[in-house]
Structures are given as C-alpha cells and as structure tokens.
Amino acid sequence: MRITTATGMLWRGLCMIVPLLFASVNLRNKGIAASAETNYKGKWELFSQNSGVSAMHLILLPKTNNSLMFDATIFKTSRLKFQDPHCQNVVVPKSLVEEHCFAHSVLMDFETTKVKPLRLKYDTWCSSGALDVKGRLVSTGGFNNGSDTVRILDKCDDCTWKEYPGTLGNGRWYATQVTLGDGRFMVFGGRDFPTYEFVPTEGKRNTKNQVIDFKFLRETHDPVENNLYPFVYLHTDGNLFIFANNRSVLLNPKTNSIVHEFPVLPNGARSYPSSGFSCMLPITLQPDEKRSVIPAEVLVCGGAAHNAFTLANLTRPPVFPPATKDCGLIDISQMQKATWKILQMPSPRILGDALVLPTGDVLLVNGAKSGSAGWENARDPNLVPVLYSVASSSFKELNPSTIPRMYHSTSAVLPDARILIAGSNTNDGYLDVALFPTETRVEKFSPHYFDPALDRFRTEIVYDKKAKRINYGMPFKLQVKGGDENLDMQKLQVNIYNPPFTTHGISMNQRMIRLGISDVKKDKDAKDVSVISLQGAPNGNVAPPGYYMLFVVYNGVPCRRAMWINVNK
Ligand SMILES: *[C@@H]1O[C@H](CO)[C@@H](O)[C@H](O)[C@H]1NC(C)=O
Ligand SMILES: *[C@@H]1O[C@H](CO)[C@@H](O)[C@H](O)[C@H]1NC(C)=O
Ligand SMILES: *[C@@H]1O[C@H](CO)[C@@H](O)[C@H](O)[C@H]1NC(C)=O
Ligand SMILES: *[C@@H]1O[C@H](CO)[C@@H](O)[C@H](O)[C@H]1NC(C)=O
C-alpha cells in the first residue's frame, strides 16, 4: 500500500538535493568524531539488593537523582510495604485492605539506593509514558481501570501520583506514547484498539470521536498480535515513523495521512510479543544548521518468528524458537530511496533494550536467546551486552552479567554515563522460586569507555547557570575542564539525550541530538578550562521541548557527569 500526498511529493523533491550537500560535510558532521581505541569490555556491579518493586517500567526524572520504577497493581504484592503499622505483619495480601500495603511504584535514588514508595490506584500494567515540557512524567494507559487513565508525577521531593481515570478515548494496554515537536503527546495502539489519539491536557478528557482509526495497526495484527508497543519516532520533518510487526510508515500527524510506506523488514516479527528492540540513531547537526531535511536513521533489532508466542505459550509441550539475530537499519529521510540495511548481531536476542549511549553508540542489553514475551515464555538468557558502533556499523560483545534479565526487564542511561539495569519476570505476583524468579536486584554497568586508561579524557562540565535553558537555534557556550591540554575539535562531541520511558524493549522518546560545534578555545582567565561554542537544535521536530542530559564526549569518552538542560522555544 502506498499513499502519496502533496507533502510526500515535496519531501521527495527536497531529498534529491541532500546527497549533494552530504558530499561537502566532513566526517565529524556525519557523527564520526575520532575516538580512542579500547579493548576494555566493561564492568558490572550489583547496585541494590532490592528495589522493592520490580522495574517493569523505568525512567529517570530530570534534575533529581531519582529513577522511577513501577510494575502493576494487579500483582497485589511486591517486595516493599508501606509504613502503615497494620502492614508490617502482612506477608501475602488476603484482602483488599492488605493489597494496599504493597507498593507498586518507587522512586529509587540511583546514587544512594534509597527507595521511596508511591501509591498508585489505577493499574499501570504494560502502560506507556513520556516526560513533558516541565519534566513531569505523563503516564498513559495500563490494564483494567488503568487502561484509559492518565497519571502525572512531578519531580519534587514530596510529589505523589495524580491519577485521571476515564481520560483516554480507547483503552491503551501495550501502547506507545510519542512526543511531538510542540510538546504534545500521542498514544498509538494497544491491545484490541488499532487506533491513536492525542493525550488531552491535564484535567480534560477525550471522547470516542477524538480517537483516530489506524488501518496500519489493523493490517499488522497477526493471530498473536505482534504489533503491540509499536516503535514510534518523531522524524526531523515533523512526521511520525511508525514500525509495527515487520512494516513501517511515515504518518503526518496533522492530516492523519500516510506520507510513505517503507519496504517490509523481513525475517520475523519485531513487535510484542515477538518483542525486538529499536532506537533512532543520534541526529547529527551542523554548526549553523540550515539543511531543509536533517537525516534520521532508525535501527530495529532482534525479535522472533511470527509464531514464537504460539509455540512458547500455546503449544504443549512448549517450544522456544531461537530469537532473531539480525537488525535492520534505515535512513527514513531518504523516503522512496530508503532501504533496510541488514546487519548481523553476534547473538540472537528478544526482550532486550537498545539504549543510545552518551557517545552516540548503541548498547544492546538484557533479554533472551529464545522464546517470546510473556513471563514463562523465554529461555536462554542473553547475558552478553553488545556495543553497536555507529561509525563502523559493527558489533562488539562486552562483559556478561550473571543475572538473567528476561521479560519485563529495563535499563536507563545515567548522568555519569553508567547504565542502570533492573527488573525481570514479575511473573503473576512476585515469585521467589521459579525458573526465572522475580528480580528486584538492580545493577549498574560501566561500558567500554570506563577503561581506566581513558580516564584522562573524561572532561568535567563547568556549570554555567545561563546555559541551562537552551532555546531553538540559540548560540551558547559551554565551559569544560580537563580532557587534554588543548581540546581538539575533531575529537569532540556535545550530545543531548532525552531520558526515555523504557518497558518491554521499547524506550519511548529516546532521542539523542549531536549539536553543531562552531569553535573551541582556551578560556582567557582559567588555563585548564576550554570554551566550546555551539548552537541549540533548530526546532522542536529535531528536539522536542523538555529536559535533556547534555554530555560532552571527548575522544569517545563521556564527561564525568551530564548537565540537565531545558530545550525550548
Ligand atoms: C546527585 O548525585 C550527585 C553525585 O552523588 C551529587 O553530586 C548531586 O548533588 C546529587 N543531586 C541531587 C539533586 O541530589
Ligand atoms: C481498580 O481495579 C482494581 C481491580 O483490578 C481494584 O482493586 C482497584 O480498587 C480499582 N481502583 C479503583 C480506584 O477503583
Ligand atoms: C510480514 O508479516 C506478515 C504477517 O503479519 C507475513 O505474512 C509476511 O510474510 C511478512 N513479510 C515478510 C517479507 O517477512
Ligand atoms: C501464557 O502466557 C500468559 C501471559 O503471559 C501466562 O499467564 C500463561 O501462564 C502462559 N501459559 C502457558 C501455558 O505458558
């Protein structure tokens, strides 16, 4: 199916001139900054013995040191009780009152392991979410009475969930939330609802009329779904790239028309329950960015055969087919000329995460080597994280973990460039004894760039209050300490990263933008300080408004700690 609109024609016209522009940009502008060689394979540490709640969903809250972890109220139990004296002797909930003793969402300080339980009333099971312009989490959907609920959690120390049931026009269970260039949210799909809708502003409700039927989700529905939690990315031209099962389209959210359909990605299904994982590669800007179309590439990896869930969950004895070993990479800005480049990972993987590291490379982590999604449906934990290098388009295995992270596991990039790894197999209510018990241990992984030999390249951002709000197109300066005698511009990157909402192998709204650097100079007054001149992203379609972590990367090594910035008009 191919639908052509006037917008589609226009973009294709513009695409013709892009290759010419490409020829004249240097390597650095393609995101290939020089980086130091290392054979260091990373290091794992057990960070916390018990997060209390198994992190089925995980997101960092800006400016605090808080990671938010939550599962589902349907489980009734967890490994953390509220302080109520009545609750202290309750082991297994037997009544509605006792169910209220167990937390289903926590804020965990990712520096100290301190955990704070937060009450949730409407079920968040397999829900969706994103940070809004103010850095609050806006969570959508879930199960049962949570499926049409919108919840908001602000980032203050004593904030609690605000819950708005009956807000969405359709139930959203296994749906995907995406942020548009103007900061509004849309939610796509979910079980039994091949539709989408805008998330209304706080306190407003959608009627059924505000729900838009989406034939693409209807068409990509297999007998066992395989189109839930679709991968959705805002393209730099304001259209939405939507991938479900093995197909993908560009949707114009203003006209609700499909602008382009990309070729099918062969070799199995990639969406839930054949859960693959995906990310958008860093969007690389030039200093004084003027291109009419800014390239954007999407990586879709792993997954399983179309019938994997049937074999693992509905067949007796169960069969656990091998997971998919390949990835597809596509430049969505090429439109008609876009094709999938097929890459082979070192090992098959399902239920993993694709996290964009502060350097712009991708970490493939967590998951299994066979089976499907569902809490007893996967086997052969894939303990080996894989580094995908964007510059060389190649994979490298890093040091393995010892803790299986199967269905319902999550991960997040921290401001110190380490990776937080949590969750796995909530099962139907926290099993201590099972083939894969419910996991509440939390680990941290220090990737390859923590090679002690590279420590001298770790810079430190000198905080400048004025630089914390970055307006679109605004030139600004960053002061940086260390890294080298004289910072070499060819080895320097400044990357801003939007903390994603991670669940089920999907990291919603994960986005990295590599800012254009125009100049690097020694500071006049402090000789160990360098001043980087750069420019904010051009508009909201490139970088939706909100909070980002800003990482300075020198010689392939991220700075000691990212700075939180607010990107806005
Ligand atoms: C977060 O942790 C870092 C490192 O321990 C610390 O320097 C900083 O003050 C903490 N920030 C907040 C808001 O607690
Ligand atoms: C939502 O539904 C669950 C049962 O699935 C019930 O325990 C809970 O009390 C309901 N929440 C509210 C606020 O009605
Ligand atoms: C894409 O998925 C559909 C099932 O939804 C399947 O029938 C079709 O063969 C797949 N296409 C390819 C090229 O794998
Ligand atoms: C199938 O999956 C569902 C949901 O994940 C689970 O409740 C059920 O126990 C599974 N059935 C079998 C036979 O594995």
Automatic annotation (TrEMBL):
Highest taxon above the source species: Eukaryota
InterPro entries from the UniProt entry: Gal_Oxase/kelch_b-propeller, Gal_Oxidase_central_sf, Glyoxal_oxidase_N, GO-like_E_set, Ig-like_fold, Ig_E-set
Signal peptide: 1-23
Record-annotated Glyoxal oxidase N-terminal domain positions: 56-449
Domain Galactose oxidase-like Early set: from-to ranges: 467-567
SUPFAM superfamilies: E set domains (SSF81296), Galactose oxidase, central domain (SSF50965)
Pfam families linked to this entry: Glyoxal_oxid_N, GO-like_E_set
Alphabetic keyword roster: Signal
Family matches, as PANTHER family: ALDEHYDE OXIDASE GLOX1, SECRETED PROTEIN-RELATED
The protein, known as: Sulfate transporter 3
